[in-house]
Amino acid sequence: MLYLVRHGRTEANASGLFLGRSDLALDGVGERQAAAVGSAIGPVDRVVSSPLRRAVQTAEAFDSPVVVDNRWIELDF
User: Fold this and answer.
1) In 1-69, where does DSSP find H-type helix?
2) Residue 71 and residue 19 in contact, taking contact as beta carbons nearer than 8 Å
3) Where are the domains of the chain?
4) Which whole-number Å values give the CA distances from 44 to 27, 51, 59, 61, in the listed order?
5) In this structure, which of 6, 25, 31, 62 has its CB flanked by the most CB atoms within 10 Å?
6) What CA–CA distance (Å, rounded) separates 34 from 10?
7) Residue 28 CB coordination number (10 Å)
8) Cα–Cα distance, 67 to 28 (Å, whole number)
């Protein structure tokens, strides 16, 4: 099974901004969203993430080793 998960919310997302490659952390809501999706999906064998902080923080919610792969970096508009 392959799950594609979008990162949790950041303060900029809450303001309606698109971040592109800006490297912002999750806000409190985003941290709770990441924890919720990690719990809902459950154990996984492998987690691959963009190198951006918000993506890595979300990936870490799966409680599995995170492989950071630059090919998954967000588009920058």
Assistant:
1) 11-14, 28-41, 53-60
2) no
3) 11-72
4) 24, 19, 11, 11
5) 62
6) 11
7) 10
8) 24
